[in-house]
Specification:
Number of domains of chain A: 4
Largest sheet of chain A: 7 strands, mixed
Structural class of chain A: alpha/beta
CATH architecture of the largest domain in chain A: 3-Layer(aba) Sandwich
Number of strands of chain A: 29
Strand order of the largest sheet of chain A: 1-19-21-22-18-14-17
Number of helices of chain A: 7
Shape of chain A: elongated
Largest interface: A-B, 96 and 96 residues
Oligomer: homodimer
Helix content of chain A: 10-25%
Radius of gyration of chain A: 33 Å
Strand content of chain A: 25-35%
CATH topology of the largest domain in chain A: Molybdenum Cofactor Biosythetic Enzyme, Chain A
CATH class of the largest domain in chain A: Alpha Beta
Chain lengths: 409, 409
């Protein structure tokens, strides 16, 4: 039955099999659809930010020299609202009412906030651009440049507004939109196929005949793939029939899959369909020193890495988390699963020579307790867990209060 | 110009305006599409998990009493593979080859793993269910129940497989699928409309005439809404025209919006379209003691809460994060923004009487440095930041090395 491969060695091997996925093709996507995608290259702004010199406040655009001695009264030569249009130049010795974001008239070099001014009845003496409308009394001097936003003061045209390799959050999309960009060049998501094998499997919800169970692995692995930023391009469930499995791998390839995840069909029974298909192609089917998830398989099929997980749903989900998720998360710019050291709420026993991954739950006191047993079929117990408790290969018993490594689910 | 409302008071007020969103309607969604949704009620499994008594190993199903004294040789009475069908009962004094997950024959009460047995050439003596095929030598005794998974041993039919209020991760979908469920009842996502106002705004990518800028707030707020687990049902951009704004709020209502976020049109200028619309309806437009984001507004329009943010993109994004995001995240079961106390890399000055939210970036040494200035138009600087630095109202200067509160972006 062969040696058991150490967990870390298998993890390294799978990582190397998946290393080709790291060189992502790129694709343009609309800015509004680019949330959580990764920039493929630095993004230049084609325009100055802000694009033109504008007012930072509602108030009056003036020449700073005209308001050096306050209070001073200036005739209001007109008004500039935010909006399209080029304002009239500011004549010396006058003021123009100006709104936040509106372009500064030529000749103006400062803005006096409305709070530092007095006019007649506020709002009644305003007209749109052009046309005199009373006078304004300026109560406080301002230096040239005050409350003026210069064109390009946030970013100059041609400078990078976003770096390469950035996972796009709303604030990054805002900066791209402000730069007038409609598309961003991002890395393509990894395209994954998920194939469940086993003659006992039926679609969830189908009437169960004796000996049949709903396929949980298809749903679980597809969701896990999406959770790690990749995309599922093909999903299938096949009975224990090598030709059917081969047809699904071909369909996955046709759908553009770059990686195939299978579940089932790799242990030591008589009907091991993944084993039967991949061993003649040079694939590896063997045993890893872990529980659950001992049986594991790897192959290449028509250029696609195929990672074969055991059929037990806890084994399949855990194997994905250990061997595939780290690579997919790294490609998607997602944080890796968090780890913590927690105290055990109760003693436990483990199997020597294998790394045990027990399902656990944080108790109210911050300690961790085991949920369910070690059985790799305990899918409800896994759902009730929030951490994995990692028990090293050399450890067979642990006392209550012992500190264990945990991985957040 | 009115009093400045304290930040925390405005936050409480907006939270109370949004409290009606917490009572979510529910909707059924396919299990495979339920990732990251929130269960509306506890989910019962209609079936036992596992659904039938089955083998935990590839090996031989036996009566434990027949293998009490080992080694012992038993005739192989047949084979049970995983898959549909009811196996023949096990005759006393015989063994049946059995695969992992296959139903245990009536009469069998233990499974001996293949590793603890010897047969002839492995694999050559196997036939499908029924039909004798040689003998097996059992090398190790097993008690009744060993390597047998009892029906319902993970979860009994009628028990809750998932609790209410759970944010669905892949392992939860796996348990639902294993229970044969095809749909889950989840909370509806909050339906939000995003309306940018300002005659200066054009769609990102449009040719800019003088005085025009691309609308960044629409993209930013829509993405921020999605990031907090809600859904955008209506997006619009209107010039400073009350009738146009009213028409968009009506359209938002028709699209099922439960919440409207506006940007712009609430400061002290002459063309403040949100102010003009909502003040006659009893809405509030005022000033909050913060920078950026001082001007804020709230209203109800045809039963929808309307939260009005300033038009400057940094103000709008920050206002969303402070006042709306916490409620949406709580409804979606998402973690709140992380906070940390970090040391300042350089001294800074702030404005007394307002809570200042400076954009910051963690330096290599773990300290935090300010990015860009305090200007609320610095959208590229915000994009280059990874934290907000919070400077309390009473603080006007801070030395390098001072410890500040930060909020992760």
């Amino acid at each position: 039955m062969g040696e058991r491969i150490p967990v870390d060695e298998h993890a390294r091997f799978v990582r190397s099999l998946l290393s080709g996925l790291g060189a992502r093709p790129t694709e343009p996507v609309p800015v509004a659809a680019a949330l959580d995608r990764i920039t493929a290259s630095p993004v230049e702004s084609p325009i100055d930010l802000p694009p033109f010199r504008n007012s930072q406040m509602d108030g009056f655009a003036v020449r700073a020299a005209d308001i050096a001695d306050v209070p001073v009264e200036l005739p209001i030569a007109g008004e500039v609202a935010a909006g399209p249009g080029v304002p009239q130049p500011l004549a010396p010795g006058t003021a123009v009412r100006i709104m936040t974001g509106a372009p500064l008239p030529d000749g103006a070099d400062a803005v006096v906030p409305v709070e530092d001014t007095e006019t007649g009845a506020p709002g009644n003496d305003t007209v749109h651009v052009g046309g005199a409308a009373g006078a304004v009394r300026i109560l406080r001097p301002r230096r040239a440049g005050e409350y003026v936003r210069e064109a390009g003061s946030d970013l100059e045209a041609g400078a990078d507004v976003l770096p390469a390799g950035l996972r796009l959050a709303p604030r990054h999309l805002a900066a791209a939109a402000a730069s007038g960009l409609t598309e961003l060049l991002v890395r393509e998501r990894v395209r994954v196929a998920v194939v469940s094998t086993g003659s006992e499997l039926v679609p969830p919800g189908a009437e169960l005949r004796p000996g049949e169970i709903p396929d949980a692995n298809g749903v679980a692995l597809a969701a896990a793939v999406r959770s790690t930023g990749a995309v599922v391009v093909h999903e299938a469930r096949v009975r224990d029939d090598v030709d059917r499995l081969r047809a699904e791998l071909d369909a996955a390839r046709d759908a553009g899959a770059e990686l195939v995840l299978t579940s089932g069909g790799i242990s030591k029974g008589a009907y091991e369909v993944v084993r039967e298909l991949i061993e003649p192609l040079g694939g590896w089917v063997g045993s890893v020193a872990m529980q659950p998830g001992g049986p594991q398989a790897t192959a290449a099929y028509r250029g696609m890495p195929v990672i074969g997980f055991p059929g037990n749903p806890v084994s399949a989900q855990l194997s994905f988390e250990l061997f595939v998720a780290p690579t997919l998360r790294a490609i998607a710019g997602l944080p890796q699963a968090r780890t913590a050291q927690l105290e055990l709420a109760a003693p436990l026993v483990s199997v020597g020579g294998r790394r045990q991954f027990l399902r656990g739950r944080r108790a109210g006191d911050g300690r961790v307790e085991v949920v369910g047993g070690p059985g790799s079929h305990l899918v409800a117990a896994l759902a009730a867990s929030d951490v994995l408790i990692v028990v090293p290969e050399a450890v067979e018993t642990l006392d209550a209060g012992a500190v264990v490594d945990t991985v957040e689910l």
